[in-house]
Amino acid sequence: MSYLLYEAMAVPAGDIGTRTAEPETLRPGGRLTWNRGCVVDDQSGVNKTAADSSSLEGLAEYATDRVMSIFADFRDPSQEWRRLFSEVLGTFFLVLVAAGGGMMGQAFPNTISRTAAVVAPGLMVLAIILFMGKVSGAHLNPAVSIAFALRGNFPWPRVPGYILAQLGGAVLGAWFLQAVIHVSASYGANYPAASYSSADAFAMETILTLGLVSVILGTASGAQNLGVFGALGVGGYIALAGLWGSPISGASMNPARTFGPDLVSANFTTYWVYIAGPLLGAAVAVGIAFVLRGRGGGQAGSAAAQGALFTQVRHPEQT
Q: Structural domains in the chain?
């Protein structure tokens, strides 16, 4: 416990009890303040010595309790930072493998095949959903966050924070790769193939994201909410889409995944493709979900979208 923490800490009366002062010596509503080795009643001005070891132990316990109280109530809505941190972390790891394949291939030619490069992001997403899906829902993708909100499974006020967290995690991932591998992050970015137009890549990103979001929304619904199998479905789809769709557009399906390498390499030439395509595909997937399963906002879909941290359910009567 540092001296500065002791010096700045204000301790409510009674929190450290008789270890610092007799209770009857304090006026009602009084506070004990640590002040350079003494505990002072801020109303009476009486110094309460805190030099003995028991007083220091009491202050240490109080400081520990105050710090732990920040993390104590996992379901408290003020703990939104947990969700945002998990989105930063998850998107960081996603970009490590999604952009890292191309960058490693440039640094070490003939070591990473296209098959490995496109399957790796699917496996990473599967792992991320399993280890942190209960915290934030493991969106990792602005298109997914917006789709969940359109579906009614995710509160709109949380969407901007999620998107900023995802973009931030993607930038950190791309910066880390460039700093460590020593090749431009542009080798990990997504671009339309040389012999194909931006319109071709846009169409490919739209249809690939439509399928991805359909799988995500489907495995989040009540009847198809199968836990681990949902993670397998999403990860498997990403790998499969990459195997056949990546030659034309790179199979990003994620504005954040492309944003990170583009920002670090300062090249946004065709970035519009990787915003407009995924967003349009996600919107169409939400419409398809309504046709297949009716309105969203039920218990299972909301839990999948928001995680287990203070889940808000718009239609609790739905499973």
A: 3-72 (no CATH), 77-306 (1.20.1080.10)
